Amino acid sequence: MKAAPADQIRLLEVQALDARLGRLDHKRKNLPEHAEIERLSADAAQVRDLLVAARTEESDTAREQVKAEQDVDQVRQRATRDQQRLDSGAVTSPKDLENLQREIASLAKRQGDLEDVVLEVMERREGAQARAAELEQRLAAVQTKVTEAEARRNSTLEEIDAEGFTAAKEREILAGSVPGELLKLYDKLRGQFAGVGAAKLYQKRCEGCRLELNITELNEVRSAPADEVVRCENCRRILVRTPDSGL
Q1: Where does the record place the region Disordered (predicted)?
Q2: In what order do the strands lie in the sheet with 238-241?
Q3: E-strand spans in the chain?
């Protein structure tokens, strides 16, 4: 393949822009904020699950408290009615009086037991409420950190995209001045060799594979016409000669 030396030099400029675009893409994908947001989002999900559990417990204990208070009220009302019967003198039979007094005593004990249940349920409800309030604060704090990290990420991505847009336009213009066949070969090689399709021969060393050419290889490059597109014998990339090649 033949290409003017100036065109081969421009190919190196295209390669430099492609390398720049590659670095920008790598930076875009590996921003520290990506991992930070992922970690914070996982933390938020965990806190959110705990919050749902606390709120569920709070709701359950609220219903349990209402039921326990209703039970206390029912026993209290029955005890009040029995006490009124006892105080009214309507019950005159000694046996009935004894049964009534025994029932009043039993109801008093029952009421005490139920009131203890109400207190225990109230304590559990208050504990659930406290946990829910603390978890709401934790969740808000984590979500604030997520928002801040997303803002930093988005700002950096905007900068990267702006730089990438400029580099891509420069690449488009510059690539348009490179002969089509040469550019086609370069793109093919770039796809095969980790994004590097053309490399400078600098001080007898290929900057693509970083290997120094042996004397036979150097003589072949020296003897090649200036417009011939030469390839590195080691990595097969396009090898571009410059005044710094050391030939």
Answers
A1: 61-93
A2: 205-206, 198-202, 238-241, 230-231
A3: 198-202, 205-206, 230-231, 238-241
In the chain, domain spans: 5-25+179-241, 31-162
Length of the chain: 247
Neighbours of 233 (CB within 10 A): 16
In this prediction the pTM is 0.74
Query: How does 175-214 read in b/e, with b if 16+ C-beta sit within 10 Å?
Result: beebbeebbebbeebbeebeebbbbbbeebbbbbbeeebe
The pLDDT tens digits for 223-247 are: 999 999 999 999 999 999 999 998 8
Amino acid identity of residue 98, one-letter, is: E
Question: Rounded to an integer, what distance in angstroms lies between the CA atom of residue 46 and that of residue 55?
Answer: 14
Measured distance CA(71)–CA(107) in Å, rounded:
11
For 188-211, write each residue's pLDDT tens digit. 999 999 999 999 999 999 999 999
